[in-house]
Amino acid sequence: MSQTLSEKPIVPAVVTETATGERKGLTKKEIAADHPTWCPGCGDFSVLALYFKLIEKRKLWHEKITTISGIGCSSRFPYFVQAHGAHFIHGRALPFASGVSLSRPDLHVFAFSGDGDAFSIGGNHFTHTARKNIKMTLVVMDNQVYGLTKKQTSPTSPLGFKSKTDIWGAVDYPINPAKQAISVGASFVARTSATNPNHVLAMMEAAMDHDGFSFVHCLSECVEFYDGAFDAANPRKGGVFNEVPKTHDVTDEFAAYKLASADFPGNFGVLYKVNKPTKNAREAEINASFQSKFTGQKDWQILQKTFDRMK
Amino acid sequence: MSEDLIIGIAGSGGDGVISAGESLLTAAALEGYHCVMTKSFGSQIRGGEASCRLRLATQPVLNPNGPLDVAVALNWDDFKKFGAELPVESATIVIYESNTGVAPDKLPLQGVKPAVVFSVPITAMAAEHAGTDKAKNIVIAGLLAGWFGIGRESMLAGIRKKFAKKGTTIVEGNVRAFQAGLDFTVANPLKEDRKLSAPQSGGQTKLLTDGNDMCAAAAIFAGCTFFGGYPITPSTEIMQFLDREIWKYGGTVLQAEDEIAGVGAVVGASFAGKKSMTATSGPGMSLKTEILGLASLAELPLVCVNVMRGGPSTGMPTKAEQSDLFQAAFSAHGDCLRPVLAPTSVADIFGVTVEAFNLAEYYQTPVIVLSDQEIAQRKETVDPIDTSKFQIIERRRPTGQELVNYTRFKITESGISPISHPGMVGGNYLCAGIEHNEQGRPTASGEMHARMNEKRFNKFNPLKNRRDLFTIEGDPEAPIGMVSWGSVAGVAQEALRLAQAEGLQVKLLVPRLLYPVAETVYQDFFASVQRGLFIEQSYQAQLYRLVRMYVDFPAVVKPFAKSGSNPILPSEVLDRLREMVVAIQSSQQQPEAVEN
Fold first, then answer.
1. Is the confidence metric ipTM above 0.90 for this complex?
2. Which of A84, A103, A223, B342 is an S-S bond match for A41, by CB 3.0 to 4.6 Å?
């Protein structure tokens, strides 16, 4: 019979310890990989830098996390991180991440995506991964345009947006990601903007600490194809960065939905956070209850009983 | 007496056709007969036409095909919808429901006049003795038990057990209905004794199971702890079986939002270090294609079972066909090679599935198992599985030494590189669909792309020499050679037995490995062959054409292929073999022009 896969790390290859024997957090040098290939001025640089900061600050070791993405400008993310990572298929980061999360409760799964990847080609997966409350953190860098293919309309492009596929201006109503996330059952929904680094870090950290599907909607400007898209949310460009009111009850779904519905730039911060059992936790219970019935039995003995029932 | 009995029963959905077949099957299996039962339906969800074919024999049963020895029709409209699936000949004993109003000499069977016909008031007997016409299936079981001597005692015990919870009134009603069936056969005996001879085996209790359950059990045995999939006929039972069982082994079943997400999660779990599997059928296979391509490039192990049904498109979801071989071999963009295996029976799918996991793990590749609707959903007696016969292979993981400056896609002599998984300190790498260098970093270098393609193709070279994935039966020097695969292989095996009984020199090659094409195995097989025949259930004869892409064999090797749901009969194959003998004899007398 097969051996159960050992979850314990095999001989550590590059572990640094302090004099007291306590393991050091990773340094930026140990986290950063290739230099990002994004265009100068891209908002995604900020998100990447803050992900590094999160890893440093919270002493997340390589063997405890995975960094997963789909396809798109933002989804190049894992290339720039030294990590157990995956650059998967367009729109399918969440199914891959679900496979990792559900089979490896010892890991924290970070998924990075863009507006096309998460809400257009991967829209179905966004809905169902949120609904199932599979434990992971999804950060969507939303630039409201397809950048990698050089300026086509995205599902979050506003009405009237002129692109190479909407030369007279977009006629399709855009998706509101936060509203959608709340309505399909995400248990943590936050909004932030790449132009406010401290806020991005705080949101990613809160998302990571949430036990469930946590979604961070991060405005991240494409200076090449949609310059100035988020000026209204940037005080340095004459806009306003309104945080979620202190009086807001994050467990109130209707209040959260109302906040998420506000006209752009709306409110930034945690809109919704509710604790409910994750799919991971429920399945761990099912595993435990089944396995308690077979304590001390080898896998082949359990299988033999199944064969006996076929007679 | 009979050694081999083929029974076909047809009616409409609520007639209890399948449960009559199942009672008979269970009783016969308990008594030690070798049994196969296939079910066939219209594609309606409820109601519509339903039929089953049972083949009960004293010797191992190789396939469920052949003309019926016994036909049971609850109504003729539904019976006729099955056409060639339930072939009636003049020697067939026909039993039908009298309330159809059809006279015994006016049966609606084109040009066939069965010699023995019984018109039986099945519904009336059920109503009279059990108080409900729901007991029709029990009356049928009684008739068949009486005329053909199958499982009288086991059947009575079965009835008592099945209805025990419903109270004595119902139990006794069903026992009376069964007895009424028996009494009818005493009052109307067969002139010729067609009772099945006593079973030869006995002793060891056989398993009675279907291909989907057996495939799922094999996955568990092989160490599969993650399944992701989406319900699709006729593969759904694989997911259902695992959802009942996998938790005991610490595993998980993910019913995904779609076929793509199912295989996406499987690739994720494989990346995370788990043995994982998905199962689907034709349309789902089409959807999974892109992700399977990534798994080939990223060299991640996984098993994908495609339970073939009639296609293209929605096609015939409830019927078997072998027309997804091209798709299994070639449906990926770019240069891509992944192994394709096919089981031949319910018993065979266990070993083939275990082998699929072993190949996936060893070669770090997706492996496709081509089952089909017939194997998946037919019930068959299977000897208890001796699990000690099977070896389990795990993927080659890096050693501590190899985790220092870990090189995920290191070009090695075998083409196989140690694969890490999250949690291994130092084992970081980026798993991606973009072409990579040895470290796993993206590359657009033509030279590197060529080297990686070479690595990904050459690693499979040893697989093409796995002769244990092929069986050859018959005289090795025979001038006539047959090749057949999947559920049709059993038909070819029976044809081989029939041919040998006539003294014909014939041999049969049955591959479990369909792709990559094992060139030398075919070359060696065809060395002695003057006439050859590929027997397949697809319009295009896909294996015949696939093998011809790689192997030159004599032009006198031809396909004998039919579209799905048109049974290939052993007797038809035998006719072809006889023609080939004649052709060889005449060509020896005067050399013929070689066809091209």
1. yes
2. A223
